[in-house]
């Protein structure tokens, strides 16, 4: 038994090395770099103070949070509707739709931005086609703006949302629907009092993941708007790899704020998930 455990621990060594090299080491470097002085050794909070007193960086945080909130809420609403629709299909069609969702959830970054530029950019296929037909569908739409970023973010949020909330629909048993129907409840009453409360823990948990996914998105936004739109991830990238002036310490401080905002969102969603489960348990007990 002991020899077997030894082999198990040996098998975990590559995983532990990966965690230390690509998780712990970057986090420690980011935290220490955010409180290190520009020149020489020392400890300072001047970069955090600079961020909190700079309207430019505060706007970047605000823009990132707003885009993340909007794209996450839209993504979860569309994801819920799509996930419920998928459960109504036959197993064969259902598997294919889930496979498609899995594939599209990984289609992000530069290829996604390039695809949208081809389709809906200033000289995109649909933009020119609708102009030729005299349709003004995209007359006021600008892909390289806030609304364009939300549209692109929603694209990669929806498949992820479907994959995360889809299993929770199987927690709603058909016997519950039949019992509710026999007792005279309408479909809306069933979903309001039973279906939606059962789904809420999964909805809260998925919202937190979608928010974190959106806050950390860099390649898609950078390929689409470059440095023309003030986003937190783009500001961090420009400070760390800037062509003219590098300010890695300031970039580290912004990255810490980005990480804290993401952790805060996940923590709040975790608390709401626990609260929702407790309320559900109380209802079932009563």
Automatic annotation (TrEMBL):
Coiled-coil stretches are: none
Q: Which UniProt keywords apply?
A: Cell membrane, Membrane, Transmembrane, Transmembrane helix, Transport
Pfam families according to UniProt: BPD_transp_1
**InterPro entries recorded for this chain?**
MetI-like, MetI-like_sf
**Topological category with respect to the lipid bilayer:** Multi-pass membrane protein
ABC transmembrane type-1 domain: from which residue to which, for each copy? 61-269
Question: Which sequence ranges are marked TM in the entry?
Answer: 7-28, 65-86, 107-130, 150-169, 190-212, 250-268
Family affiliation:
Belongs to the binding-protein-dependent transport system permease family. CysTW subfamily.
Protein name, as recorded: ABC transporter permease subunit
Q: Which organism is it from?
A: Candidatus Cohnella colombiensis
């Amino acid at each position: 038994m002991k020899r077997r455990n030894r082999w198990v621990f040996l098998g975990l060594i590559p995983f532990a090395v990966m965690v230390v090299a690509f998780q712990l080491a970057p986090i420690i470097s980011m935290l220490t770099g955010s409180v290190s002085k520009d020149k020489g050794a020392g400890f300072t909070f001047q970069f955090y103070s600079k961020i909190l007193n700079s309207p430019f960086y505060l706007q970047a945080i605000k823009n990132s949070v707003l885009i993340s909130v909007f794209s996450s809420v839209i993504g979860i609403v569309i994801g819920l509707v799509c996930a419920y629709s998928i459960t109504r299909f036959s197993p064969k069609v259902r598997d294919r739709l889930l496979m498609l969702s899995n594939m599209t959830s990984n289609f992000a970054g530069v290829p996604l931005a390039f695809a949208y530029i081809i389709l809906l950019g200033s000289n995109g296929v649909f933009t020119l086609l609708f102009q030729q037909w005299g349709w003004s569908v995209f007359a006021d739409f600008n892909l390289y703006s806030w609304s364009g970023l939300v549209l692109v973010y929603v694209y990669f949020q929806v498949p992820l949302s479907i994959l995360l909330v889809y299993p929770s629909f199987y927690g709603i048993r058909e016997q519950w629907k039949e019992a509710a129907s026999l007792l005279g409840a309408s479909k809306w009453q069933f979903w309001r009092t039973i279906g939606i409360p059962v789904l809420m823990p999964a909805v809260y948990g998925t919202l937190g993941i979608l928010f974190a996914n959106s806050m950390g998105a860099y390649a898609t936004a950078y390929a689409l708007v470059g440095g023309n739109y003030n986003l937190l991830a783009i500001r961090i990238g420009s400070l760390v790899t800037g062509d003219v002036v590098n300010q890695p310490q300031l970039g580290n401080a912004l990255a810490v704020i980005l990480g804290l905002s993401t952790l805060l969102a996940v923590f709040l969603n975790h608390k709401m998930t626990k609260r929702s489960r407790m309320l559900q348990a109380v209802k079932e007990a009563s």
